[in-house]
Amino acid sequence: MASFVYNGGELEVSEDMKKAFNTDGYIVVKGLWREKELSVVEEALTGEDAITQYAYGNEDKDGKEARMCIWSYTGNDTTGTIARTRKMAYTAEQLIGGEVYHYHSKLMMKEAHSGGRFHWHQDYGYWYNFAFLFPDMITAFVALDKCDEENGCLQVIRGSHRCGRIGHGVMAGQVGADESRVKDIQTALDTVYVPLSPGDTLFFHANLLHCSAPNTSPRRRWALLSCYSRADNKPYDKVICSEYRPLEMTDNEAVLRQGVNCDLDGKEITMKVNNEYKVVRP
């Protein structure tokens, strides 16, 4: 697994990082978010007016549930500031090869003993149907808790982004990649676990196959994900998530400088009601 260490200041995206991303479909940046920053994030996500009030559950085929909340447009709260920092957005630009804008962000919540699995899928397996013509998209997955095999950390198939988009279908309420095709790919490419410590950040390509097992541990497993599309890959229609808006990046100290902010004005939040999705504006 290609991992790199953040030592503060501007994150220099080296040629080695770009090469690893292009070859493997992902890289890990260790320590991208510090403990005191994560404390601000934790308070912003668990306060009375937190965005988690809009969370909904997704059941896997075994009936276990992982909760999530998802929003378009950054807004100005703590979660939006995270997505706009240069160490997230500019790094995404350098890896995906061009100006990016914020497509959406989400909080993934696997609670202790109960957090369900996510089946093998590609993000572009979903996003293809949301009016994007190309897979020039990238996700920054920030571990808020320790992620390991016991509590359902991500697994990826290294290099699978080079296989192109794979057919997806509904699996017990989730959208998953064609299982027979995934098995064939696993005979040619390595399947690897991606353990992360709090603050570590995984950047991965929209066509990288990934999944995660249920959380059977006594520890929760929360992660905050910011998803970006290249600006020249604007959606041709607005389907649930955001249309193109230029991304106003901020410096890497912005979260600490701002502090806890739960003002959700400016976001569009996707909710699941009676198995149908609707968008609300707080």
Automatic annotation (TrEMBL):
Coiled coil: none
Domain of life: Eukaryota
CC cofactor: Fe cation
InterPro entries linked to this entry: Phytyl_CoA_dOase-like
Organism, as annotated: Aplysia californica
Protein's name according to its UniProt entry: L-proline trans-4-hydroxylase
